[in-house]
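We store amino acids, tokens; thus:
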Amino acid sequence: MLAHLPNAISFARIVLVLPTAWLLWSGSYVQALVLMSIAGASDAVDGWLARRLNSVSELGAALDPVADKLLVAAMFIIFTIQGHLPLWLALIVLGRDLIIFGGAVIYRLLFGDIELNPTVISKANTAVQIAALLLLLLSLCQFGMISDLAAELVEPYCFVLLALLGIGSGIDYVFTWGARSVRRARG
């Protein structure tokens, strides 16, 4: 029973996307921050539990990044519509993920099984996306000096870093998986 707990936690993170998105859309930023904090803590807990209980699974390996990507995508879309994020940045972030997803589907169709191992730059990209979104959310919560400091970090620093990491990690994935495809086609 405990072996399924990490997957259940990852699934719960996916379920949290909808209420978090609704809170963001309605401008309830403090409540959205609470749900984001729960999602972030559960992300750490499910991975730790999976390793601790020796219950790392393919399902868990798939659910974890899906939960992260759904929440990040929802936040980017809502914050862009609300005018808190520039459209060009949302296009880079979401476009990168769509290209990677499309490439993975094509690879799967051509070669069968696909083992998704995120690269170091991809992990950094995801971490910076989440940190930047949390800072942006903090800046909208009207917590006085903390929100002011968060706002100063978000624009331009986080925007530039997100763009560079998004482009760099996208290029890294294209070259990494392109080379893997060539090797697999030859062998």
Remarks:
- The first helix runs from residue 5 to 25.
